[in-house]
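User: For my dataset I need records formatted as: sequence, then structure tokens, nothing else. Please produce one.
Assistant:
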Amino acid sequence: MQRLLRLLVVLCAAAGFHAPGLAADAREAAPAGRLSEEGFVRIGGIDQWLTIHGAEARNPVILFLHGGPGDALSPYADSMFGGWDNDFTLVQWDQRGAGRTYGRSGPSIESTITMDRMMQDGIEVAEHLIRRLGQRKVIVVGMSWGSMLGVHMVKRRPDLFHAYLGLAQIVNWRAGSTASYARLLELARAAADKPLVDLLEAIGSPPWDSLLKWPRFRKPLMAYQQKRVTAAPVVLSVAPAYASPAERDQYAEADDFSFLHWMGITMSGPLLQIDLPSLGTDFAIPFYIIQGQEDLVALPELAKAYVDAVTAPRKRFVAVPGTGHEPSIDQLDLALRLLRQEIRPLSLAR
């Protein structure tokens, strides 16, 4: 029987079917040794892309929640998280509307893309990993958009998670955009940048009623952030499996699709309705945020105020000097150190 099951898994993988899901159902004991798996798993009624990599299957599991919302991390994970797999099993998930998941479904599932559905998807992914890897719980790391999704997940099902770690944490998109606008206007005035001051005053403060205003604001925002960033950036490279022109075109199409859906033409999309404090600030698991000190997209003082209001068994806020919204080497080093020194021992405790 075991030989037949192994043969079925191999045949399904070769045919592009759901090898990880089948393995999860068939396996009676937790796996051991090096893991390197990737494939589609049926999550929330559609096929969603997962990769699972680690030096030892019995290590604690990290489920990464990418940003964007459509910026899947799977193509870049090797360059971002090299060496992390010695201590953790690393899971990348192309969320609904992103990456290879979008490539499989196309835009037909747009009506299903809601925060509640995404939260349920994330919970199903965590449950799948727990079954597949014989774990009690997983660690969730949310980045930018993924930080909002992650908070929803751990609030709904804390029993599935050892701890939450947010990077470039966004607390409330509307409030955050208004604060970023005010900060950029302040910086432009201090620099006597009259063209930018005039542009910002012409656009006006959020909320906005047209998506056309967004790139006019976003471009100078990122330019001013770059002037303040001093920490070395993470150098991203696309893994060969994701590097073909067709794959890159699909990735870009998914990114555009997700952005338009979540923001909306009139900037009234579901992203602008998210307010994490309204979920409650009591957490049943350890809660950590590592934020760039120079982040102009998600201002660190907003994330710090959120953490200050949180009650959790353990909590910590760390501001990383010289780092903006995009991860720096320093920020990821701090994250790995915290994961190794504090979260990993918690996850191994029985």
